[in-house]
Amino acid sequence: MNYINVKNLSFFYDAEPVLENVSYSVSSGEFVTLTGENGAAKSTLVKASLGIIKPKTGEISIAKENIKGKKLRISYLPQQIASFNAGFPSTVKEFVISGRYPRNGWFKRITAHDMAHVETALRSVGMWEQVDRRMGALSGGQKQRIAIARMFASDPDLFILDEPTTGMDDVSRSEFYRLMHHAAHKHGKAVLMITHDADDVKAFADRNIHLARKENSAWRCFSVHEKRQEETEK
């Protein structure tokens, strides 16, 4: 089941084309990576797909329900989300718990079920032992993992991730890729992840969407490289 389906999306900065006629989809149960050279408008494509910025043209369809017939939940993790300074007042637990509020409503009490989600999310990124520390006291890589744990605590159906492993070491990155593969294949989640580590993640991902510069384009205009996409698709 397609959770997100994009057809012929084009985006312009002022009068200059950046993305042209890009089409792709992401379905439940698959882990898809999005790659391209620096400046290939990968983040722009994701933001346009989610309606954060308005594309010039194109059709974007996001499912209303998940595979269980319940309201589809989307979690978007932008670049460098974990830039908390040393004075950030929240503890790790408080920050991750906040990921449960949109599900329960802002004024509903946090339950034991919610706390179980929080603990599972923190353990999944190897940060349960840091549960009572202040967010501002953590390293950059630790903050990034806590931001990911908050996302997991919200229990989304569709994960949209923009370079989520920034600041992680090799072991942490590999474990994260394994975790996303598990979420897709065992729990029916859909994952779209922007990454520069295409070689490292290809053992875990199902498909790769590659943005390539259009031939004979004076401006840096990108579109989906169909040949590359077919070659990497399992």
From TrEMBL:
Q: Does the keyword Metal-binding apply?
A: no
What biological processes does GO assign it?
Answer: establishment of competence for transformation; zinc ion transport
Extract one GO molecular function annotation from the record. Answer: ATP hydrolysis activity
Q: InterPro entries recorded for this chain?
A: AAA+_ATPase (IPR003593), ABC_transporter-like_ATP-bd (IPR003439), ABC_transporter-like_CS (IPR017871), Metal_Ion_Import_ABC (IPR050153), P-loop_NTPase (IPR027417)
| The entry's keywords | ATP-binding, Competence, Ion transport, Nucleotide-binding, Transport, Zinc, Zinc transport
The keyword Transport is annotated on this UniProt entry: yes
Q: Which residues form the ABC transporter domain?
A: 4-234
Q: Which PANTHER family match?
A: HIGH-AFFINITY ZINC UPTAKE SYSTEM ATP-BINDING PROTEIN ZNUC (PTHR42734:SF4), METAL TRANSPORT SYSTEM ATP-BINDING PROTEIN TM_0124-RELATED (PTHR42734)
The record's family statement is: Belongs to the ABC transporter superfamily.
Function per UniProt? Part of the ATP-driven transport system AdcABC for zinc. Required for transformability.
Tell me what this protein is called: Zinc transport system ATP-binding protein AdcC
Please report the organism this UniProt entry assigns to the protein: Pseudolactococcus hodotermopsidis
